[in-house]
Amino acid sequence: MDLSDSQYLIEIPDLSRAPKLKQLILRRCTRLYKIPTSLGHLKQLIRLDLNGCKCLEILPHKISLEALEIFDFGGCSRLKKFPEIVGNMSRLSKLCLSETAIKDLPLSMEHLTGLIKLDLRECKNLSSLSNGCCCLKSLKILTLSSCSKLDTIPENLGNIEGLEELDLSGTAITGLPLSVVHLKNLKTLSLRGCLGLSSKSFNKLLSFPLKQRKRSPNPMGMLECSLQGLWSLTKLDLSYCNIRMIPDVIGSLSSLKKLNLKGNNFVCLPESIIQLSNLEDLYLGGCTQLQMLPKLPLNMYVIDARGCTSLETLSFSPEYDFGPNMNLVNCVKLIYNQGKRDLFSTFLRHRMIRIIKRGYNPNRLSYLTIPGSEIPNWFRHQNVGASVNLQVPSHLLLSSKFLGIALCAVYIFRQHHRIYTQELCLVKVNGYTYFGYPLSLSEEFGKIESYHLWLQYFPFTRCRWKEELDANEFTQIEVTFVTDGPGWEVTKCGAHLIFEQDIEDLNQTKPGSSSCTISPYYEDDDLGDSEKDAKIKESRDDEPPHPKWTEHPNLIENWIGNSCIQGQGDSDCE
User: Do 425 and 288 have their domain in common?
Assistant: First the structure.
C-alpha cells in the first residue's frame, strides 16, 4: 500500500485485519502523527517506509516484524523513541532513523542480527550509542554524522567485525574505543569536522592502544599502535579537524587510496607518506599553514591543494616518475618559488608518457591548474577570448603517431562566490561536437582574484570521427570554453596537437636547463594588454616546419599557423 504525499492523512486505522500486508509506504505524509499498535504484529510486512513524516510522534511500543527487510523513518523530526525489538527480526537489512529526535536506542537492537546498514545521521539529540548496536555482527555501514551531542562510542565497537564504513563526521567525540583495532574490514573512516580532535586530542583519537587502556605518556607512541591495525582502510577523512601535525604512523595505512586533510593547520606532511603505495587522491585544500610537500607515492592521480597560500615547495625532480593531476589555485608562493617552467614541463612529460605506457582511462582526465596570466609558448595555436580554431591536414590526424590535443586557458573570476561553477570545454571536429568535458571551479578556499591557467590533455586514441576524415582534405578543430553562470571569464586560450615526437622531446627535456624546448610563460610584465594580445596573434612563419611535414609540402603551404607540433630544433627558451 502506497499513500505517499497524502497531506491530509492524520492517522491510519487498525491494521490487524490486513495480516498479509507486505508494503506500507507513507512517505511525506506531513500530518501523520500516530501509527497503531497493530502494525507491530504484521508478520508478512517486508517494507515499512515513513520517510519525511515530520509530525510522526507515536510508534508501537514493541514490534515483532519477522519478514521486515527495510525500515525507514528518516526525516521524522518529532520521533523521540524507537520501539523495543521482540522476537526474531533477522531479515531486516536497512534501518534509517536519520534526522529524528531519538535520544538513544534500546538494548534489544541486538536482535537485528541481519542488519547491514544503520543510518543515524543528524540525530541531534542522540547522546549515546547502545551497546546492543555493537553486537550486530552483520553490520557493514554505520552512519553517525552530525550527531552533535554524541561524544563517546561504546567500548565494544570492535565487536562489529564486518564493519566496512564508519562515519563519525561532525560528532563531539574526542577519541575512539580501544577495540577499534579489531575492525579488520574497515575500509572507510570519516572524522570530518570533529573539532574535539584538534591538537593533542588528535593524537589521542588515533591512539587505539592494543593492550593497555591507560593513557600513554607519549601520544605519538600511542598513535603508532593505532592505525597499523586498520590494514583494509582505503578512505580516511580527517578534514576540518584543526589538526596541527600529521604523525609518521600514517604511512602504515598500506591500503589507503583517498586521504582528505582539507582545512587543517599542519605545516608539512611526514616523509612516511611515500610508503602509501596505493594512495591515489590527496586533498589539502584550505591548509593555509602548509609550506612543503615531501615526495609522494608514484601512483597518485590527484593532488588538490587549492588555497594552500603558504605552500612553497613540492618535492619532485625530472627523473622522478610523478605526474598527478594538480589543482594549485591561489598557490602563488609555490609557483614563484618552485619555478613555472619546471612545474609545467614536468606535468606534460609525465602525464602524457604515463598515458602511453599504461593506456588511456576515459574516466580519468589529465589536468593542471596554476596561477598565471599567459598561455605558454609551447601551445602553437593561441587566441584572445574563449575559443581557438585549428585547421589541420587530415592525414596528420589519421597518422598512428597522432596522440591527442593539449589545451590551455587563462581565466579569472569577475564575480566572487563560494559555490561551484560548472564550465564546459567543447571540442568540435568539422562542426560536430565530439568532446565535452566539464570543469568544476569554485572559491571554496578563498577568493580567486588573480589570473589562473588551466591545462588539460585529451587523448584522441579512440575517436570514431577519424573514420569520416579524408586524408586529402583539411580538418577544422574548434575548442570553446562555455559557462553556465556569471563570474567566470576565459581571456585567452591555446591548443597544441600531440604527436609521438612531442613525447620524445618532452622526455629529453630537463626542466631548468638552457636547452629545454618548453617556455611556459611570457615574461612581458612591462607590456600593456593590447601589446600582449598582439603578441599572441603573431604568426610564426619564421619557425622551421617539423621534419614530418616535408613529406607533404603542398599541404604545409596552405595550413594556417604553419605548424602544429614542435620539432627538436625549435626552442622558445631564452
Answer: no
